[in-house]
Structures are given as structure tokens and as C-alpha cells.
Write a structure and sequence with these properties.
Helices cover 74% and strands 0% of the residues. The protein is mostly helical and 370 residues long.
Length: 370
């Protein structure tokens, strides 16, 4: 019940944007951090794998996880921490970094806490390395908004640090050229990306999953065909259906469009010129979801990238409610579209991981009455 009450209160507080919205948001994230740090080992789907890696790595068994995460676990193990203690500390640090990054973009922390709790909490609580990774990437992005040489350096450095926790962080390095490219070129690139995405979606709809796989592997015969076929087979055996893929395309492309359109509608003033910088870098970063969409046809694991780019749009929405007087009336329509996108996004990114994961959600939220 604590989860539901917190999300509702944070959402109302984020819309009303009162004097204590920031404090309210910090309380909301404290609730989410507490719930995420104290999960049930028997019902959290990735818990056993993480625990096995934590216990085996100090014994010299090769780890399937990234070097940075593995080394953190080894040091914690040698210090005498149990996996549950290590995971709790790791989670709290991740949420602390995340909140610091959020506050560098907006004071409407309550809205971010509510939308994050609804849209990303369950996935990132289970895939705990992704939580730390996206927190570090977002912190790096907060330095990139000014587009200075030092800001670019800090973003790249923090992104590489995030990649030591989860390698998908490397994908977000694409934000740098997107931020630096001239606006006219960027608009053309977005059109090309959208065209390729739609084309691939239509191709799969017409020829079907299996024929698409055969066509793709034939075209890529110059690479290690055996590994590629195995990965593609695993992708579709894990339940990555065409319908789910199309929903990811819808939410990924929709979030990128909403983010860029809201950012373009902001009415800049001399006092609030920094807000435009924040909106611009967040909108540009959201375009990464378009770049990642074609990869979803290879493996459902790549859905993490358009999923995690949603945090950029969440921040834009929070900034809208913080500075709503500086947006035209037409922006309300985009916010309405975003609210329609929320349940579709939640459904898509929960069901793609299968029933074992969706069955764990009541336990992740600590709904004892289930």
C-alpha cells in the first residue's frame, strides 16, 4: 500500500507544484529506494543470478557481469557483506545519484518520482545494474546541457563509468554527436531514423518473424552466423512477439516526438534561458530511443535502451509542470498524448519479460494483501 499511496501523492503534488514539491519528491524517492533495497529473494526474478555471481566471483569463477560491478561485489564480499547487504547499499547509492541528477534538471522532483515509480521502478528494481547505469548517465547528461568542452568530457567519463556497471551505457555515447550536430542536420537525421524504423516494422508485419530472421541472417552472412542465429532464436523463444515489438516502436518513437515537440514549444525568457538548455539536451537524448528500435528485432534485451530513455521525457514533463506558464496552450495536448502513452509503455515493458517477471510485481511493490 505504501507504493500506491506514495505514487498517487507524488503525482498530485507534481501537478499542483506547491512550495514543498521538492521535499515531497525526495520523500517519494526515499520510499522507492526502500522498497527496491528490500526485495524478496524468492520472488525477484534476477535475484538468484546476481547472488550466485556475488558468491562465485571472489572464488575466481569468471563472472558474466561487467568488470566494474564484479569488482564492487568482490570488495563487498571481502569486507564481509552478505549479498542482501551489498544489494541494499548498491541500490541506495544508485537512487542517491539518480536524485542528484534529477535535481540538476528540475525542482519538480515529485512528478519525476511518481512517473518513475509507475513506468520504470519495477524493471529497474529487478535489473539493478540498469538502475545504477541510467542514474550515472543522467548525472553525466546534466553536465552536457551547456555543451562546453568540460561538460562533454564529464558526460563521456561518467558514461564510461556507467558502462562498467552495464555495457548498454556505451549506447548513450551517441548523445554526444546528436547534441553537437547542427539543428538542421538533426531534423534530417530524425526523418531518416523514423523512416528506417517504420520500414523495418512494416517488413516484419508483411513477412513475419521467422522469415525476417532468415532474411536478416542471409544478409549478414559475413559475420558469425551461428552466434547470430542463436541470439535471434533466443529472442523469439523469450516471447518477443511482433505485437510487443510494434508497441515498443510506438512508445519509443512517440516519446521521442513528444519530447522534441515540447522542448521546441518552450518560450525562452532572459531569466529562464537555462531551462531551454535543459529541455534541448533532454529532447536530443530522447532520440536515442529511435536509434535503438531496430535492435529490438534482434533481441528483447535491447528494449532496455528505449525503456531507459523514457526518463528523459519524464524530466521534460516535470519541467513543463514546473514552468507551465512559459509554454503555449497547445502543449497541453502533448501532455495528454504522453498520459495516453504511459499505460501502453507500462504494459509493453512489463510483459516483454514474461509472466515470471509480471508475477513478481506485487512483491516488488510490497503489496502484502496479494
Amino acid at each position: 500500500m505504501l507504493y500506491i499511496i506514495s505514487v498517487i501523492i507524488e503525482f498530485i503534488g507534481g501537478i499542483l507544484k506547491g512550495k514543498h514539491t521538492q521535499i515531497l519528491g525526495l520523500m517519494g524517492f526515499a520510499v522507492l529506494a526502500f522498497l527496491a533495497a528490500n526485495v524478496d529473494p524468492t520472488t525477484t526474478t534476477d535475484y538468484a543470478n546476481y547472488q550466485a555471481g556475488y558468491l562465485s566471483a571472489p572464488l575466481g569463477v569468471p563472472s558474466v557481469f561487467e568488470r566494474g560491478y564484479t569488482q564492487l561485489g568482490i570488495q563487498a564480499y571481502n569486507f564481509g557483506l552478505t549479498y542482501a547487504e551489498f544489494r541494499a547499499i548498491f541500490t541506495y547509492i544508485a537512487f542517491l545519484i539518480l536524485v542528484v541528477a534529477i535535481m540538476r534538471f528540475t525542482s519538480n522532483v515529485a512528478m519525476v518520482a511518481s512517473l518513475f515509480g509507475m513506468m520504470l521502478f519495477f524493471n529497474l528494481t529487478t535489473q539493478i545494474r540498469n538502475l545504477m547505469m541510467i542514474a550515472i548517465v543522467l548525472l553525466g547528461l546534466s553536465f552536457l546541457k551547456s555543451k562546453t568542452l568540460m561538460g562533454i568530457f564529464l558526460f563521456i567519463a561518467l558514461d564510461i563509468v556507467g558502462a562498467q556497471i552495464h555495457t548498454s551505457s556505451y549506447f548513450f555515447l551517441l548523445i554526444v554527436p546528436l547534441v553537437l550536430v547542427p539543428r538542421d542536420w538533426l531534423k534530417r537525421m530524425v526523418i531518416v531514423m523514423a523512416f528506417v524504423t517504420v520500414l523495418m516494422g512494416l517488413l516484419i508485419l508483411i513477412v513475419g518473424n521467422h522469415r525476417f530472421i532468415n532474411l536478416l541472417t542471409s544478409m549478414l552472412s559475413f559475420v558469425d552466423r551461428g552466434n547470430l542465429v542463436q541470439r535471434l532464436t533466443n529472442s523469439y523463444s523469450r516471447g518477443s512477439r511482433i505485437s510487443v515489438q510494434l508497441l515498443i516502436i510506438l512508445t519509443g518513437a512517440g516519446s521521442a516526438w513528444i519530447a522534441t515537440t515540447i522542448a521546441n514549444q518552450y518560450q525562452v525568457t532572459l531569466v529562464e534561458s537555462k531551462t531551454q538548455q535543459k529541455l534541448s539536451v533532454l529532447a536530443t537524448a530522447s532520440l536515442v530511443s529511435l536509434l535503438a528500435i531496430p535492435l529490438i528485432f534482434l533481441a528483447p534485451d535491447y528494449s532496455r535502451i528505449p525503456r531507459e530513455t523514457m526518463v528523459f521525457l519524464i524530466l521534460i514533463v516535470a519541467i513543463y509542470f514546473e514552468k507551465r506558464t512559459q509554454f503555449p496552450t497547445a502543449t497541453k495536448t502533448l501532455i495528454f498524448y504522453f498520459m495516453l502513452l504511459v499505460p501502453i509503455f507500462i504494459y509493453t515493458h512489463l510483459t516483454i519479460w514474461g509472466t515470471l517477471f509480471t508475477d513478481s510485481i506485487p512483491y516488488l511493490a510490497h503489496w502484502e494483501f496479494w
